[in-house]
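Input record (one chain):
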Amino acid sequence: MTTVTAVTVCDRLRAVTEAFPLSGEFIRAAAEKNRRNAEQSVSGLYALLMLVQRAGLDSNALEIVREKGGRPIFKGEGMPHFSIAHSYGLAVCALSDCPVGTDTELLRVKPNAVSLAERYFSRGEAEQVGRAKDPSTEFFRVWTRKEALIKRAGKGVDGRPDSFDTTAESFSEYRASAFGGEYIISVTGESEFVVTDESVLAR
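The corresponding structure, as predicted from the sequence alone:
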């Protein structure tokens, strides 16, 4: 079972620190980034907290660490998997009983969407963007799916986003609204969106 939620980015450090007492080192590292990046990273952990609580798990007993490749995980055997992403004021998290990846992007006009897709996407993905009625939105749909797959794998793609194709994979897709903007959220596999922040409108 995979659940996903989104929260607005703001100062959530105290709530996260109190909820994950075993993860102080990880949280401090996130909080020491510049203000904008710190609030985004910590808000992602807050979204994780919302899903952990909904799943009936005790956040006090969970320790967040980084794998060798840099992916955050819960320490220990048999722990749930999670993936965090953020973009321009929105933080997203997916929690699952199997490896999962998620990504989000603020939808905006990208005049060079087709040329960028031809340069960085696989042939099938580039054609998908090229024939879309709204190439900008289609570009971000493919981009978030690529990022979600990378996060699920827990490793990079050697700077070659065209080296793999998303068209054969299964994704769940959501739209969210916050701060007057619209966001696209992609999650690998089947998932359920859970509203945990009333300031985020999802559909």
